[in-house]
Structure formats: structure tokens, C-alpha cells
Give the backbone structure.
Amino acid sequence: MLAFVFAWAGISLADISTTDISTTTTSTSSTTQTTVKTDQLSTQDLCDRLSSSSLNFSKHLIYPCGPEGKCRCISSCLDCTFAGLTTLEYFENEENFQTFKNYTYMAFDSNKLTIIGDEFKTYSSMKAIAFGNNSISEIKPQAFYNMKQLDLLGLNDNMLTTLPQNILPPNSSIRSLFLSGNRLTTVPSFVTDDMPQLEALYLTENKLESVPRVSSTLLNTLFLDGNFIKNPHESEEALNEINSDSLLTPHFGVPFYSLSQNPVTCSLITTSFVFSFSC
């Protein structure tokens, strides 16, 4: 379960989205192993959960909106999950911008999107936006550059091989970044060097060959399962470097790192601070 909290809603991600992080623990006389099976961000019922939890909206405030009325709106939440969208051009229109400019959450998961252009270049109120489970292979520069309050960006389960360096503003406020299920071979430097508030980074099932050296001192959750990380000494050095800079204040009191299903030999990694570490 994720430890960070959405300041904008006052509730934990575990309360408002199904993160589907399932664990199995096996004990032997000498070892205890915890395996994290998945770290996917699920947002399809976020608006429903918001409406029935802390925001306490009544059901009559849920109404059709967005392109051809295929989405749902609840106050400042736009849910376009499973809406069959192939493009985001609708949100470039000035009239539509005026309608949605103050929205703080948007979900576009499970559509047929292939590209994110500059449709949201004028949107500045966003605190969380998700595009999981599409076929996105390209994100244009400055796609989210005006989102200076953005806490969460979900790009998991797409076809991304790289990310432009300037899709976000400098010193991004991102705290949770979901990039699992793509085709990344490296982690862009703006993620490792220019996200000072980053707490949780999800990179499961990409094509990474090394542990990214993330500079954020707040990082407490790092998922690297299902990559091609091989060098145990380099991995241990990178994790120790992250740990030495960490404030060590997550929910469990220690960072949560997972490198299961990688070629790296776990027995050669001796970092004592890893809460859950399996191969």
C-alpha cells in the first residue's frame, strides 16, 4: 500500500484508487521474502470513491460531460475512463477550456490514445492526471508544463520508449510518478534530478538495465520489478546512495524498494534498509 497522501483531497491514494498491490510472504528458518506482484494505478472508479468518501458529494451531482458526453464529472473531477477516446483535441477548444480549467483531477485511462500533444498547455489547476492503459508512444514537449501544482502523473501501461525533458515545469511538484508497463530503457534526467518532492516512482516492466539514481530526498517507494537489471554491485551502490539521502519518513519507517523478476542476484545485495526485496 502506498504511503503518500494526496494533500489536495486529504485522503490516501489507497482510499481513493485501487492500486492492486498484492503481496505474499513466505517464511523459512532463515529468510522471509515478500513479493510484490504488481503496482498498477487504477483510476476508473476514482470519482465514485471521491463522491462517497471525504468529499461527500451526492449521486445527483455525477453527470455526463466531456467529448460527446462520454465522460463523467463530479465537482472538479473528470473521469473519461473507458470513454473510447482516440484524441484529446476536445480540450484545446477555448470554450471547453473555460469549462474544465479549474478541474484538479482528470482520468483518461483505458482509452485508445496514441499521443499527448499540447492539449493541456493552458491548464494550470491540475493536481492529478492519469493516462494509464492506452497506446501512447509519444508525448510532445511541454505537454504538462503549466501544471505547477501537479502531485500525480499516471502514464503506466503504454508504449513509451522515452520522455521529452521538458514535459513538466522545472522543480516539478510531482510526488507520485507511474511509468510501469512501458518500454523505457533509461529514466530521463528530469525524473532523477529535477523532482525534489518525488516520493513514489513506479517503473515495473520496462527495459531498464540499472537502478536510477534519484536525487529526491523524499523518495520512499521505488518499484523496478520485471526489468533487465543485472549488476548487483551497481544496484546496491545506487540504492545505498538513495538511502543515504532519504529522510526515512514514509509510512513504514523505511524505504520500500522492489526488484523482483530481474536478472540481478539478490544474495549479493546486502542493503539492510530494504523493506521488501525479492528476485
